[in-house]
Write a structure and sequence with these properties.
Elements lengths: L3 H7 L4 H9 L4 E3 L15 H9 L2 H7 L4 E3 L18 H13 L15 E5 L2 E5 L22 H13 L4 E6 L19 H13 L5 E5 L5 E5 L7 E4 L22 E6 L3 E8 L3 E9 L5 E9 L10
Parallel strand pairs: 1-2, 4-5, 5-6, 6-8
Antiparallel strand pairs: 3-4, 7-8, 7-9, 10-11, 11-12
Helix pairs in contact: 2-4, 3-5
């Protein structure tokens, strides 16, 4: 969230205060880039960036009333970081700071020493992915050996999908999953399609209903329907406090069968999900000047998410 030079000018804007005082959600997801440790014009350390974030007036107002579930992405370490901990000593230092200020509030990880975790709330189950620690280099040729999650985390995810009994099951990814993300980044799942298909082919094979994706990092907001899996919907709503970045690649350069039902790149964004037993409402909020406003809502029935509907 905290881009140093931008935060110094405008702080977090009004989004966090609006969420805390008007929406009052049961909890909030922060999907990475809580600080921009690699983008700083001033001689201060990463710990000082975290201190500025957690002691910010609007952030404190939010966290005093709202539980936070979080994950790191790349900027907590450095831009496009995509290596294992043994490959980069900076990881150990900076992910430790993330854990101190954010990660220790999360549920216990599914594997000691890792960061990914799962939890349940009402009619929904959630799996928070770590898409950085075990990711293969993005330049690697796509295939069975290329991974975003690593073998153990992927096994945990598939086991969770098979075991979850709630009507809705949210896969939470700090990176965009839809291949339409290629309009503005090569950091998402679009370069890891073999693993993407491996995961969602399991959803189809076992007819697992209620699977929905929540994603971040795109710096614009979108609501996607996956072409290879028409039952799979994804909402990405970012940035909440950083600079928006419009999609810059033209449509004809992006080979995707996914459908973009909504997009916005002129403001800051966040999403709200309201879950009931047989339906959910997904809303994207946008702030340009002043308080944020809802700009898109999609209602999904549980039956919309069944991979192989009964005949």
């Amino acid at each position: 969230m905290a881009v140093p030079f931008l935060y110094d000018l405008v702080g977090f804007g009004g989004n966090l205060e609006y969420i805390a005082s008007v929406l009052s959600p049961a909890f909030m997801l922060l999907l990475g880039d809580q600080v921009y440790a690699d983008v700083d014009m001033y001689p201060r350390d990463t710990g000082a960036l975290y201190e500025a974030t957690v002691h910010d007036r609007s952030y404190k107002a939010l966290t005093q009333s709202t539980p936070i579930f979080s994950m790191y992405d790349d900027h907590e370490i450095y831009n496009n970081w995509n290596q294992g901990e043994d490959d980069d000593p900076l990881y150990t230092e900076r992910v430790g700071l993330f854990h101190r200020y954010f990660g220790q509030r999360n549920p216990r990880p599914l594997r000691d020493g890792d960061h990914y975790y799962a939890w349940q709330a009402g009619a929904a189950s959630f799996f928070m992915l770590d898409v950085r620690k075990y990711a293969s280099p993005k330049a690697m040729v796509d295939g069975p050996q290329k991974t975003k999650l690593g073998a153990v985390q992927k096994s945990h995810l598939l086991s969770w999908l098979l075991a979850a009994e709630t009507p809705f099951k949210f896969i939470v990814s700090p990176m965009v999953v839809s291949s339409l993300g290629l309009h503005s980044t090569d950091e998402g799942w679009a370069l890891y399609r073999a693993e993407y298909h491996e995961i969602f082919d399991v959803v189809v094979a076992h007819n697992i209903s209620g699977v929905v994706v929540l994603s971040g990092d795109l710096h614009w907001a979108g609501f996607f329907q996956h072409g290879a899996y028409p039952f799979l919907f994804e909402m990405g709503a970012s940035p909440i406090a950083a600079l928006p970045v419009p999609p810059f690649l033209p449509r004809w350069l992006v080979n995707s069968t996914d459908t973009l039902h909504f997009s916005s790149c002129t403001g800051t964004h966040f999403g709200l999900v309201d879950v009931a037993s047989t339906r959910l409402s997904m809303t994207i909020y946008r702030a340009r000047f002043g308080w944020p406003e809802p700009v898109f809502t999609r209602e999904l029935l549980w039956t919309d998410t069944i991979p192989v509907p009964a005949r």
